[in-house]
Amino acid sequence: MGQSTYTGELNRTLGLPSLFAVAVGVVVSQVVFVSILQGVGIGGASFFVAMLIAFVLTLCYVFTYSELALLLPKAGSISSYTEVAIGHFPAIVASIAGYLAPAIFGLPAELFLLEYILDVLYPGSFVYTGVIVLVMFTILNLIGVDLFSKVQSLLSYLMLTSMVVIGVVGLTHSDPRGLPISSIVEGISHLDFNVLNLTMLALWSFFALEFVCPLIEETKNPKKNIPRSMIWAAVFLMVIYFLIALAGYRTVPAGELAGSDIPHWLLVLELFGEKGKLIMAVLAITATCSTINTVIATLPRMLFGMAHNNQMPKIFMKIHPKTKAPWVGIIFVASIILIPTLLLSGKQDIILTLMISAGTIWLIAYIIAHIDLVVLRKKYPTISRPFKSPWYPFPQILGIIGMVYMILNNSPSPDMTRQVYLNAGIILLIAGAFAWWWVKYKMKKKLFEPEPIENALSE
Hints:
The protein is an all-alpha fold. Helices cover 72% and strands 0% of the residues. Helix 1 packs across helix 7 and helix 4 packs antiparallel against helix 5.
């Protein structure tokens, strides 16, 4: 049977180490380093409290996605959960706006940052690095999920090792120019509500752990490995982020961190001098490659699941007969990242605003997920749940309140806030228009008519 017509099932090859690598790999990007170190520079001791608040909000959405993923173990992820809870229209909007939009706007920013760092380290030595990385990992994912997982594990663990080394050296550096760690206690004693405004910077560092959920149909023992991978990743990242933040707080003056576009290079330069170029290059390359690799692997699986749910064109169901890779989705996702990368090259400021805009809608997707869980608990109270969110419904209520607050406080300036809301509104309008047309005229269903859970499980 030819490549152009083959559809079928995905292979279950991913274990806990691979899923942990995916969760960590998609979260830890260069943008995350910038957020953490700029946050420390801006907020000082208060930022450590902001990270704790962000960690709690992260556990809230991790608990929610863990329960939903095992209740409806489909590659469609948020679209599968939402269609059963509140209907196909919000399911499609949440998937397109909450996940495809961040890829369109956020991934080019990550690629531009890689090019910027490499040009600072080795001027003129690297050309079109972003495009090369994107093409390389597109080909890798077309080869199949097994090779993807091996490369992802290598990238993630190499990146985490580099972060631990930087953090430990920062804590033991003999000539720090920042503030003593003992001053953190005094700083925390003078906390005010501004700490909540810093939480958005910290929360960026925990986005996307749920990207393991679209891989559930390729996961071995998902009942244990899906929740564990996200929870362990959240805890491990919290420790790593604290190490990096403490190293920056102690080693580099706050004003320099807050004012730099690449504060992670300032930290590495302070710790290792010019010899730190190689460490910085390894960190930058592994962080960006890990994020790109994971997104190109997971989003096509989400489109695959949506196509199975009749929420996307059936062409996204096509998988390669040998590699079992959803090749149409992979090429599509790579293309929607490549186009803005080429068109907006050199316009990093615009991309940053667009990324925050898309991230704002990502928060809406998290809110929808929390609502899904509450609705499904009430609608199907007796159905088997391999994982149940601890302390229900408090994580869901806290998650909704926290995400709403973050949406209302999502950028550092009023001018950017207005632009973010405008961009987010345009994204939602486009996603809503497509979802309305698709549900009404292609699916021929009511916009907010939930799908019976029996139908969703049998698809």
